[in-house]
Amino acid sequence: MKSKWLFLLLWMCVIVRPEAWGQEVKSANTVAEEWIQVSSSSATVLQWFEWIEKSTGIVLSYNPAQMELGDVCRIEHGGKMTVETLVRRILSGYQMKIAVVPPRKLVIHARKIESYDVSGTVSEEDSEERLYGAVVTLEDKDGKQWNTISNGKGIFRLHVPEGTYTLKTSYMGYAPQSQSVRVTRDCFVRTCLKPLLFEIEEVTVESGKRENELGELTPSNLMAFSGGDLFSQIWILPGGLLPWLARILWLMEEDMMKISYCWMACRFFIPDISVRFYLCSMEMP
C-alpha cells in the first residue's frame, strides 16, 4: 500500500514540474550570453551601447563618469558573438565586471586602465658591470609584447598598461632571464645576467716556413737602389728637421769600383739654427 502511494506521489511531481526532466537550467548570466550578429564598423561607445539595447532589448546600466563615451571604437572582425564579448571589445581599454539583474538588465562596472613606467638596470651578476644593448621584453598573458634595449648605462624603460607581465632579458654571451612582474604603479627592476662559458678545442699554430729556407733571405735580394736614387732622396729632405752631415761611401765587391769623394757643403737657414748639409760626389770607373 505504501509503495502504491509513493508511486502516485512521484507521478504527480512529473506532471506538475515537466521542465525538470531533460531540459537545461539556464544560468544567471543568460542575458550576457545571448548571441548577437555584429558587422565590422566604427562608432562611439555611447552609440554601441544604444545599438545593443535596441537590438536585444537588454538594459545597460553604467556610470558615465567612469567611461569616455565619446571615444570611437572599431570592431575589426564582425560576426556572431555574445553580448558580454561585444561589451568587452567596446571597453577594451578598461577593467570591467558585468553583473546580471533579472529580468533583462546588465550592470557594467568599468575603470580606465592606467599606464605606468617599468624601468630598471641590466648588469653582469658577478662584476655588476652594466650591460649596454641588452634586449628587454615585457609580454602580457595574451602574447602582446613591448620591447626596448638598455642604454649606455645599462638602464631601460617601458611604458605599459597595468597588469601582470613576463619580463624577459637577453644579451649575447649571457644566459637569458625571465621573471614575472606585477605592474600597478611605476616600478624599478634590477636584472643580473650570468655569463655563458664556452669551451673551444685546442689549436696548434705552426710556422709556414722552414728554418733552412730562412737563409735564402739575404740583403742582396731584399732591396737595392742606385746612388742617384739615394741622392734624390737626400735632396728632398726638409732642411729644418735635423742637422744633417752626409758622407756616402759606396762599397762594391772585389774592388770593381774606384771611389773618390769630395765634400760639398750646402747651407740651410732656419730660425735660430744654422745647419750645414754635406754631400759627396762619386766617380764610376
From TrEMBL:
<dbReference type="Pfam" id="PF13715">
    <property type="entry name" value="CarbopepD_reg_2"/>
</dbReference>
<keyword id="KW-0121">Carboxypeptidase</keyword>
<dbReference type="GO" id="GO:0004180">
    <property type="term" value="F:carboxypeptidase activity"/>
</dbReference>
<protein>
    <submittedName>
        <fullName>Carboxypeptidase-like regulatory domain-containing protein</fullName>
    </submittedName>
</protein>
<feature type="signal peptide">
    <location>
        <begin position="1"/>
        <end position="22"/>
    </location>
</feature>
<keyword id="KW-0378">Hydrolase</keyword>
<dbReference type="InterPro" id="IPR008969">
    <property type="entry name" value="CarboxyPept-like_regulatory"/>
</dbReference>
<keyword id="KW-0732">Signal</keyword>
<keyword id="KW-0645">Protease</keyword>
